[in-house]
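Q: Please design a sequence for this.
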């Protein structure tokens, strides 16, 4: 696979992000996930599958005084995430560990459990053998999981989330029934925000958040509409994408 990279601007060019030219490339999903995380100064945050670090960099740009740890095991993504942290001067805020989320590695066992205020992720959307897999290995790793992927990622999230901590995923709308089941088993205060490409179309993505050990009821939020009918971003989304505003 080619390691040729592009240098892209995020948040109205406030962040500079290296990405593989022909591999998985972060976009609106990453910025919107970052906008949905209700972190505050002093919080410890964990991103599962940090990739090129777009989500965590957008979050660190918006919320000052937090600490972020990322898990990633893809060699190309480890190199790129660390480079992006460095060129945006967030070395004191964001650290990345070479950890495979779907394994029980020694590095993971060495970390103290139940210590993070926020755990967030963009897990693989699709299941191998059901969905047609991309030929590009990097895209395949980011997009294609298995029948146990979502459950595994939620179990790991619960391992590291403190009591009262929030877990936030963005994923394909088709996975919402499974996500609701998995989140509701161990969390309360579950909130669901569907994402629509424009008005009067079916949702394509969903943000789901739960609170560890909470007993609060399930809540469905108004959906986020990405684009006006003429294809331009809505004012709300424009503020998120260009200015890093909170959802």
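A: Design:
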């Amino acid at each position: 696979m080619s390691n040729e990279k592009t240098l892209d601007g995020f948040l109205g060019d406030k962040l500079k992000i290296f990405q593989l030219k022909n591999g998985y490339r972060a976009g609106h999903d990453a910025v919107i996930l970052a906008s949905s995380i209700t972190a505050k100064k002093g919080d410890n945050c964990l991103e599962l599958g940090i990739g090129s670090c777009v989500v965590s960099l957008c979050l660190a740009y918006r919320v000052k005084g937090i600490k972020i740890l990322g898990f990633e095991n893809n060699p190309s993504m480890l190199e790129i995430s660390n480079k992006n942290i460095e060129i945006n001067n967030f070395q004191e805020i964001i650290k990345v560990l070479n950890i495979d989320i779907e394994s029980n590695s020694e590095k993971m066992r060495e970390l103290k459990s139940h210590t993070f205020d926020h755990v967030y992720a963009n897990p693989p959307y699709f299941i191998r053998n059901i969905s047609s897999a991309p030929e590009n290995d990097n895209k395949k790793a980011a997009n294609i999981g298995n029948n146990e992927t979502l459950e595994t990622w939620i179990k790991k999230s619960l391992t590291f989330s403190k009591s009262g901590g929030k877990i936030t995923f963005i994923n394909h709308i088709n996975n919402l029934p499974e996500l609701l089941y998995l989140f509701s088993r161990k969390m309360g205060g579950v909130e669901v925000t569907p994402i629509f490409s424009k008005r009067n179309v079916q949702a394509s993505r969903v943000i789901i958040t739960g609170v560890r050990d909470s007993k609060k009821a399930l809540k469905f939020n108004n959906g986020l509409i990405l684009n006006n009918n003429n294809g331009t971003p809505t004012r709300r989304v424009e503020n998120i994408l260009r200015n890093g505003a909170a959802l």
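Q: Thanks. Anything notable?
A: DSSP finds eight helices and 13 strands in the chain. Confidence is low (pLDDT under 50) at residues 128-134, 136-145.
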